[in-house]
Amino acid sequence: MEPFTTHTGRAVPLRRSNVDTDQIIPAVWLKRVSRTGFEEGLFAAWREDPDFVLNNPAYDGASILIAGPDFGTGSSREHAVWALQQYGFRVVISPRFGDIFRNNATKQGLLPVVLPEDVVERLQDLTEAEPKTEITVDLVERQVRTGDQVYPFEIDDYTRWRLMEGLDDIGLTLRHEAEIEAYEKRRQPWLPTTL
Amino acid sequence: MCPYNETSSHNERHPEAEREEVVGAMGRTLAEKIWEQHVVRRAEGEPDLLYIDLHLVHEVTSPQAFDGLRLSGRKVRRPDLTIATEDHNVPTVLGPITDPISRTQVETLRKNAAEFGIRLHPMGDPGQGVVHIIGPQFGLTQPGMTIVCGDSHTSTHGAFGALAFGIGTSEVEHVLATQTLPAYRPKTMAIEVKGDLPVGVTAKDLILAIIAKIGTGGGQGHIVEYRGEAIRKLSMEGRMTVCNMSIEAGARAGMIAPDDTTFAYLEGRPHAPKGALWEQALEYWKTLRTDDDAVFDKVVEIDATTLSPFVTWGTNPGQGAPLDSVVPSPDDFDDPIERAAAERALQYMGLTPGTPLREIKIDTVFVGSCTNGRIEDLRAAAEILRGRKVVTRTLIVPGSMEVRRAAEAEGLDEIFKAAGAEWRTAGCSMCLGMNPDTLKPGERCASTSNRNFEGRQGKGGRTHLVSPAVAAATAVTGRLTAPADLL
User: What sequence ranges are listed for the domain Aconitase A/isopropylmalate dehydratase small subunit swivel (chain A) (predicted)?
Assistant: First the structure.
């Protein structure tokens, strides 16, 4: 996973709330067995509308998505994160994320940033008025900055450290294999096995 | 309202991290008890490392996970705590998978299961079925266990007093490799259901009403525990329906404490403990309840006595209303974001404010899914369809081949066929548009599944979530209908 410290880029204002993962990546795309090639499927149904914000060439090359509350609700499909990243997004900003989506995002290094609703709307207004607006997302300082405005955001120390180092969860866990073995020895005897 | 709107400090804990224990030992909730019981390792400033008692696998979210194992030269740590099935892609008529991409995905799971030594129930196997139906069916889902799957409706298993939740593909790989999951303990929410459900109001109506009340973000960051007499009176299948849709309220997991209903359901199932182990297990399971002096982070009360058959009109599971009422107007919503969402939804769904919900014409009825694809659901549908004919296209999809056999032993299939409905084989079917059972653009469906998102059942498809009884009654009249309307 690529380390994430600070990222500056242009943003897309997505004026929708409750963007569920079926919208982010429709089910038909989940049939793929590889981890790549999902950029075509990002918001596939909405992109058929020529007026959809991602179809506006002014936003080409944007790497930050600014969405309404309850982004990423619904299905646990991590493919939603892959689609966003493969399309080119490195950050999603929203007042509230679906839990599973937020978790999946941090596994892949797509940074989910929670900002208050009024701030999100202000940023959407800004990027709608001027698509070339540059926004900086600074994970080190835990700030979103644009022009002379500074918006702090919260993220727990551990996730921040893991994203800044670009570390893989499995490797980190296997450092504690002895503890896993110790736990296994004291599991209750009636617990079922499948084989 | 954003809960994280506080000034930043550099010693921040995850918003879901355990709250400080209050001085003067307080009781613990069921969720906390199970969580603590499964902590392999805890370190300051890090997520807990949880042991996973059961890992359910299906063909959609596992290919890339197994690939990851292969690439890093790792094995599955506990094949004996892992079980796989084919459900999302499979057709629900006998025969091969015609779509080459679906076929590849299913073949990939078969290859992976063989290579990594995982038990698999493929199409054609008598144990095959929807992943959240076969776990309980085999007695693999038990109280006090941690259960995960690369599927958000894993919350279903919480009906047994298990801690069960959905995970993404990277976490699937993590569990395969280590049988553990790093996680922060979510907050706890009690949903107290007061009074008794009126006659004709089912578990599905209850959970739809709950989601309409607290919204699709209402449970976010929380494990929900459903409590109260009405919950105690639900059968295990009813409890599974309720817990299944916890995710639609944004909850991390949903649970119901085990009781005699739970134990009776489990006793004798293939993987339930037997003999002395059964007695030991029972003694432990009886301790699995929230202490009387435990404090939940949030409490929501629902008055069961006011409920009636409930349906959705919109494009998220929270956009629902009693079947007795009318399509709302965007102006009914004070919050500008909800108002905009309602406008969008009404446009997509092709509905006019003020239209009685009973007047909405339905093209297709789907009875099935991990929400309502069990034997009691089929019995409820059969009860309505006995001696009647359907006017809509009607798919009856048993959630597993075992449910199918049970239904046939009771003659339910004959009732369905005589009514003109299609009697199918087991799979996720029309819940989610990944297999041949899909809606055409503009087609309107009364569905016993769990999501009514735009395009969920097929591009441009329009979904109304309902209970099995309402689905069956709707098939008879061709409009959204309650069973009582047919009398």
Answer: 1-117
